[in-house]
Amino acid sequence: MKTVRIIPRLDIKGPNLVKGIHLEGLRVLGKPSDFAKYYYEHGADELMFMDVVASLYDRNSLHDIISETAKSIFIPITVGGGIRSLQDINTMLRAGADKIAINTAAIKNPLFIKEASEEFGSSTIVITIEAIKDLDGKYYAFTDNGREQTGIEVIDWAKKAEQLGCGELVITSVDNEGTGSGFDLELIRAVANSVSIPVIAHGGAGTKRHVEELLDSEIVDAVSLASVLHYDTIKNLTSNWENSTEGNIDFILSGRSFSKFAPFNLISLKEHLHSKEIYCR
Amino acid sequence: MDKKVVIIDYGLGNLYSIAQACNHVGFSPVITSNKEEIINADSVILPGVGAFKIAMNHLLELDLVPVIRDFAKSGKPLMGICLGMQLLFDESEEFGMNKGLGLIPGVIKRFPEKVNDKKMKIPHIGWNRLINAGCNWANTPLREISEMEFMYFVHSYYAEPLIQSDILTYTNYQEFKYCSSVQNENIFGFQFHPEKSGETGLSIYKYFLDRKS
Questions:
Q1: CATH number at A3-280
Q2: A171, B7, B57, B187: which has the fewest C-beta neighbours closer than 10 Å?
């Protein structure tokens, strides 16, 4: 029997959990530690933290958030965003991360994947691929939250990353990300079929049915969810917004709803999947 | 008196997660590669993430192999986690044959490429179940764990113990059944990461650190 992994993804900007659409237009949702704890207590299989502005501004504010989180959360933690050197990786591992996600730095220097996986073990190194479908129908890898076109085809890059020793791939459909319109199954299938390492699908989940479709097809055995969980969580958390020092918090204060999404919590998602004979922890 | 818990620091492994797990169950571990501290500890944890050969080389360079063997002989509890479990065995076929610590008879092998004609996904990453190998867990760190409990795994190689009675649990990955934890008297090895397996995983640390032998 195969078990799938459900991985909440927390996009971080400064001290805040944020969420955008197509990786852009970031809105503040709350305190990362509150959401992380909530997901841990509701049966998350792993957590993924991404500093979404780190490669843009050459900074990384995640360190403190991770070292705080790792004290009370005992599931695997993947950290990414602005990781550029073996030293950066070491710093994050020492803060309590278990796996390190790399995109931009690996595109700039693919041998970084080899160095990193030899130094820290393949299973520690996760490559994230931001994919956008071009007019020619092919998928290309982007960096800096879908802003910079690399001209590298996603499938070629996935195979190369595997060869260079990374242990897992996160494939993000930038086109679908944050929209709640469902996963890009064509993209995810193409990537998963081209490699033999585990692939984590990300970008597009708006309903339980979307997650079910993805996992039922047995293309991947892990899925990363953000908006669709956060929009449920936010209703159940009473956070302290006064601490928010940067970012646009109008959205949270407005209490608006999310038309395309049918948000859910992890427990109800797992119950739903189980009823469809898709098994998780 | 506070128990002295040592996590061996040889440059590899998720030392900090393991330290947090120890803290959480009420122990304050020391992360060290100091021989005196290791041999005088009440219990020792050998972590490990990465490649077998590199790990053994680090232990050899730090001259820690004799100390770990002496500690094991002392009868005090020793626990290997993930690669740390694999290092307890005689040898590994990872990147050619490499000698291990030789504390538990057996070898470390790579998962087969295919099982029943189906390609295996390697590394094995994710939550998987513990199957009782036919022994009583009551007197082991697994005492609070229920049969078929989920634990978190990350590995490409697995242990094949020579002595059947050393096997505490099996795990099934893509229809391939392998040994996922071992015990040889005071020496324990867990292929999964109890420190990453939620509250149930933490109970393994609690009962291991509570032991006297």
A1: 3.20.20.70
A2: B57
Q: Which residues of B touch A94 (CB under 8 A)?
A: 16
Report the predicted TM-score, pTM, of the whole model to 2 decimal places. 0.92
DSSP H/E element including A16? strand A16-21
Strand extents, DSSP E, chain B: 5-8, 30-32, 43-46, 78-81, 89-92, 98-99, 104-110, 114-115, 118-119, 124-129, 131-132, 150-155, 157-161, 167-173, 176-184, 187-190
Which single residue is written with the structure tokens 């859910």? A264
Helix, strand or coil, per DSSP, at residue A239: coil
- In chain A, the residue whose alpha carbon lies closest to the alpha carbon of B202 is A74
**Catalytic amino acids of B?**
82, 193, 195
Instruction: Tell me which DSSP letter residue B120 carries.
Output: P
What lies within 8 Å, CB to CB, of A275 at 6+ separation is: none
User: Does residue A247 surpass a pLDDT of 90?
Assistant: no
Provide, as residue numbers in chain B, all residues whose Cβ is less than 8 Å from the Cβ of A200. Answer: none
| Residue pLDDT, tens place only, A105-116 | 999 999 999 999
Cα separation, B142 vs A164, whole angstroms: 37
**CATH code of the domain made up of B5-210:** 3.40.50.880
CB-based contact A258:A233 (threshold 8 Å):
no
Neighbours of A276 (CB within 10 A): 14
> What is the greatest pairwise CA distance in chain B?
56
- Residue A240 pLDDT class (50, 70, 90 cuts): very low
Task: Give dist(CA B87, CA A223) in Å, integer.
Answer: 32
Look at residue A241 in the predicted model and tell me its pLDDT.
53
Which tens digit of pLDDT belongs to each residue from A145-159? Answer: 888 999 999 999 999
Q: Quick check: B154 and A123 CB within 8 A?
A: yes
Residue A257 confidence (pLDDT): 54
Q: Among all chains, which residue has been given the structure tokens 């409990």?
A: B149
- How far, in Å, CA of B163 to CA of B184, rounded? 9
Cross-chain CB nearest to A221 (options B16, B23, B126): B126
- Does the distance separating the beta carbons of A280 and B49 come in below 8 Å? no
Strand partners, B108: B92, B159
Q: What is the interface pTM, i.e. ipTM, of the complex?
A: 0.91
Write out chain A residues lying below 8 Å of B121, CB-based: 196-198, 221
